[in-house]
Design goal:
- This is T9SS type A sorting domain-containing protein.
- By secondary structure, the protein is mainly beta.
- The chain contains one helix and 36 strands.
- The strands form nine sheets. The protein has a five-stranded antiparallel beta sheet.
- The longest helix is centred in the N-terminal third of the chain and has 20 residues.
- The radius of gyration is 25 Å and the shape is elongated.
- 35% of the residues are buried.
Length: 455
């Protein structure tokens, strides 16, 4: 009974702490219906666009535009050229403020999808709509804007995978297919604009578990490519140094513009595997990621902050709904706060879009190791690091002074004084996984700082 009470109190404290970080949290969707989100994008004026599908009583494309506070500006429903069932996969804003939605659907035969492209003005009114029709499976999965409001879209036409470049009126400029390997035509499931071209990701079958990243020019010709470990790409983002952060199923990896892998991690939260669906660079030079975690009976979402070297700085699971929720996208707004979206079963049998804003995690302590002019620590060693239950710091000469351990918000969480000691054990078992700062204040003025990583 005591253990159960302590568990409940710990969960209550965590829930209150997490809630205090939420700035707002809103849901969208018609009553007595289901709304499933496919994509959320931050628009050029600070608004947000959420697109997906509405089910019951009929399937329609469902779009919501909100202001910077998540308040609804307009909602629209579209039926793309008579399709009875469809899936909106992606959306983008062009430089004129128009909105372009892509996806695919069918009129009753699930083996014969037709792809559609829907162009809207800023008010949600239709400018034009186009459909790709062949006797086989057709669909558009991703879209990005290129030069002069051209579009690059990944498409499946006639059962084959293509990458198409479109004029702003929707006409095809060129269409090319790319193979993951000889005889293995892969689908393009990751696009990003780079200087003088694009970076695309070609997926293999999940049993192979690899993607081929390809740099192409404006005409679609390959410049170079390389293979990395991930069988599905959910999101690609460029940071301030023109490196790329890629979310691929349960893995997050980073590589430079030349294709060199800088690091790859497969993090866990609460000893459970997670799927990272979206990640973006933050103003302080780190990254913020949005993930799903399956708990067996339901699914929750959470946030994870990652350092430029791949170290997980902080993570939290957001217990916001009683039932299952699924993540989609995360962006960083003008204030540096985190805005994320997805869909959730908010009541039993009712699914809705959600859009939420979380306060940014400030990093008030520099996690780099610093030394002052009086420091005499050439013989100082910290091990193991990363650590799980404890770390030990040793020094060739005896130390007298005080060790203090801080979290990244500057809160002191442990301290102990030593006298004429060459070794000190730092207890970590009661702390959450992440990065901590160990400081030693010497009686003789020989101070030092060390970064401690708790796994």
């Amino acid at each position: 009974m005591k253990k159960l009470l302590l568990t409940f109190l710990a969960f209550l404290f965590f829930s209150i702490s997490s809630s205090a970080q939420m700035l707002w949290d809103k849901i969208y969707g018609p009553p007595q219906s289901h709304a499933f989100l496919s994509r959320m994008i931050l628009l050029s004026n600070g608004d947000y666009l959420l697109v997906g599908r509405q089910a019951s009583p009929i399937y329609t494309t469902y779009a919501v535009r909100t202001d910077a506070n998540g308040d609804t500006i307009w909602t629209r429903k579209y039926t793309p050229l008579g399709l009875a069932f469809y899936l909106v996969n992606d959306a983008v804003e062009d430089s004129d403020g128009n909105l372009i939605l892509v996806g695919g659907g069918h009129t009753g035969n699930p083996n014969n999808y037709d792809g559609f492209i829907l162009k809207l003005d800023a008010k949600g009114d239709t400018i034009w709509m186009k459909k790709t029709v062949t006797p086989q499976y057709d669909s558009y999965s991703e879209i990005i804007i290129g030069a002069n409001n051209t579009c690059l879209v990944s498409a499946m036409v006639g059962g084959s995978n293509f990458l198409q470049k479109l004029h702003k009126d929707g006409t095809v400029i060129w269409s090319k297919s790319y193979a993951f390997s000889p005889g293995n035509i892969g689908g393009v499931n990751g696009l990003i604009k780079v200087a003088n071209g694009y970076l695309i990701f070609i997926g293999s079958h999940y049993s192979i578990g690899r993607v081929r990243a390809v740099r192409i020019d404006e005409n679609g010709f390959e410049l170079f490519s390389y293979i990395n470990k991930a069988w599905q790409i959910f999101d690609v983002a460029a940071d301030q140094k023109n490196n790329f952060l890629v979310c691929g199923a349960g893995r997050l990896f980073k590589f430079n513009s030349q294709g060199d892998t800088l690091w790859s991690i497969s993090p866990r939260v609460g000893n459970k595997m997670i799927s990272i669906f979206s990640a973006k660079p933050t103003a302080d030079g780190n990254y913020i990621a949005l993930f799903d975690r399956n708990n067996g009976n339901d699914q929750d979402i959470g946030l994870m902050k990652v350092a430029p070297n791949g170290t997980v700085i902080k993570d939290t699971v957001l217990y916001r709904f009683r039932f299952t929720e699924y993540s989609s996208d995360i962006v960083v707004d003008a204030n540096g706060d985190y805005v994320f979206a997805g869909w959730a079963q908010v009541t039993n049998g009712q699914n809705r879009f959600f859009l939420a804003k979380h306060r940014k995690w400030n990093q008030v302590i520099d996690i780099e190791e610093k030394k002052d002019e009086k420091e005499l620590v050439s013989g100082t060693n910290l091990y193991p690091n990363p650590a799980t239950t404890h770390a030990t710091i040793s020094n060739e000469d005896s130390l007298s002074g005080t060790f203090k351990l801080y979290d990244l918000q500057g809160k002191k969480i442990w301290q102990e004084t030593v006298s004429n000691s060459t070794e000190k054990v730092i207890p970590l078992q009661s702390f959450s996984r992440g990065v901590y700062i160990l400081k030693f204040y010497s009686e003789k003025g020989s101070n030092f700082t060390r970064k401690v990583v708790k796994q």
